Amino acid sequence: MLGIVAVNGYIPYYRLPRTAVGDAWRLEQARDLLIGERAVAAFDEDTITLAVEAALHTLEDRPTDQIGALFFASTTPVFLEKSNAAVVAAACDIPATTTFDLTGTLRSGTSALALAFDAVLVERTPQALVVAADMRPAEPGTLADAINGDGAAALLVGEGDNVIAELIAEAHLSAPVLDTWRRTQDRYLQSDDEAFALQTGYMRYMNEVGERLLANANITPDQLAGVALYAPDGRALMRLAKRSPFGVALARMGMASPAAVLLMQAGNLGAAFAIAQLALLLENAHPGDFIALVGYGDGADAYLFRVTDAVEAWRPRRTLRHWLARKGEITYTLAHAFRENWRDKPLWPPTAEPWTSLPLLHREQAELLRFYAQRCTTCGAVWWPHRPNCYDCGAQTGFEMVRLSRRGTVASFVAEWAVPTPLPPLGMVTVDTPEGARITTQSTDGDPRAFALGDDVEFALRVFHTAKNVPHYSWKVRKA
């Protein structure tokens, strides 16, 4: 049985009400469309950190030694000439022998899924991980500025009795469509004649791929229990519900459809949008349900899955709805500053250049990306980051590596106003981990003054600073 073993997603903590965009740019004619809110990646997040979050929540303490391939999909990769997938694999401690980056199209996530299924089918790997993340840059003051959201989703593909959604059929088509685009030198998304593109591109190819999928599976539209699909905005989604093979399922779900939920509470997540919807569907799916997954962008990809009995035992500890509910509101000015900071600034005072060493980054990859601590085999002491001698017994040899669980409790904390940060105050938190390490690091996602001694916390990979035009990743802490 070939299919999905696990799926989950991640939505950043910060939210921007769409009315704030309308108020900032006096978008009176679009006021009726500016409902809900959009997710905004923090100043210390990028598509790699978003992808790592989604991947870690999907794996949820699963062994990673069976994952022989990792596919990273995004229209906004951090690196244009360097493997983003390799960084994600390292941060997830996946010994993947094969990593791929797929970019340039909104359906890169669903296209990566086809490659992952093929890799498992030909026995190239027992399992493959697909991770999609996007932070699509829209010109300030445009409707896309209010509708697009930041987020990520991940799928673990494999064979066997632990498959929660069996692959029944698929359909693919390719066609060049000028609806939205962004050239290498473009800062923001481009578009023109949206009504024409919607009718001759989106509606046409979503209908065609839907008809092919149902024909390949030999089922009727009313047999679909749910649909996870890309939709540029709410208007396109409603149009699809009226005239498409997926209309029956969309009409049945109404505003509870995963596309509508995400559009209202997080926004259009780009390459991660359809996969994130699939995570929402499978959270409440029942064995025997037929669910369609459809991606769009210069053509379309469509998959039909049948939910298996294994879904009952799979239910994730923290669902995508958890990340939707966990949020804090920010202003439009701050949201725009976060985005510009991510693109142009070094997360540091402009008068100072953070020290960096590429050999040191390579040498400390195990602690900075994979989150491995050192343990003294003489006395058992554990510490992070690494050091040349044991802080307890003074031994200089006999150390072993131990991967930290990314969990802990607060031993002490301070809110520091003197240290420059895009969102003051800067939180410095000392955390005791279950492995015995005591770690002091920065906090993220929320006001550090909200911590209390003994609070349960977790570590998240974030950008600490940028130097030599390279993001330096390490682990910050947030409330669990």
From TrEMBL:
InterPro entries the UniProt entry points to: ChsH2_Znr, NA-bd_OB-fold, Thiolase-like
One of the GO BP terms on file: secondary metabolite biosynthetic process
Ranges where the ChsH2 rubredoxin-like zinc ribbon domain occurs: 366-396
Annotated GO MF terms: acyltransferase activity
Protein name (record): ChsH2 rubredoxin-like zinc ribbon domain-containing protein
Entry-linked SUPFAM superfamilies: Nucleic acid-binding proteins (SSF50249), Thiolase-like (SSF53901)
Gene3D superfamilies: 3.40.47.10
